[in-house]
Amino acid sequence: MVVKAPIFTVCGTPTYVAPEILEETGYGLKVDMWAAGVITYIMLCGFPPFRSAKKDQDELFDLIMDGDYEFLSPYWDNVSSEAKDLISKLLVVNHNERYSAEEVLAHQWVGDPADVSLSREYLGQNPAAKKKFKAAALAVQGMKRFENLAEQFQRQRGEKIIITWQVGI
Questions:
Q1: Which residues contact 127 (CB under 8 A, 6 or more apart)?
Q2: Which pLDDT band, with edges at 50, 70 and 90, does 162 fall under?
Q3: The whole model's pTM is what?
């Protein structure tokens, strides 16, 4: 999508939604950087950064709006400070201060763009790594399909459904 002006459509999966979408003041491309921060967080520890203890969507949205998350022990004990630093630069409530895609690519945890082509080459030459990557992609695709079915059920039944995922690593 080419974004030439702020977007006002309220959309997204509750766990991944950026604060500016909830504020309904208009948003741009940095909502994707917020989602990338949430996904990275989940991939590194197995659960989302913003969670409602009561499984309450309003409470979840309040946590997102406040940027209220932490790197809980023992889940984050063995995660590098560089990875935590990148997440901290993506899960920034003020979108003007949040990292852009270009800044993410230049971050030391992500690495040199030359390393990306090396990674692609590695995946191409390593069947086990390629299989794991494909399995992860299919898992995400399956979760998305389930969310779509739940949203359809919610529209038909008029009942509020909150979906949360716990990803095992």
A1: none
A2: low
A3: 0.64
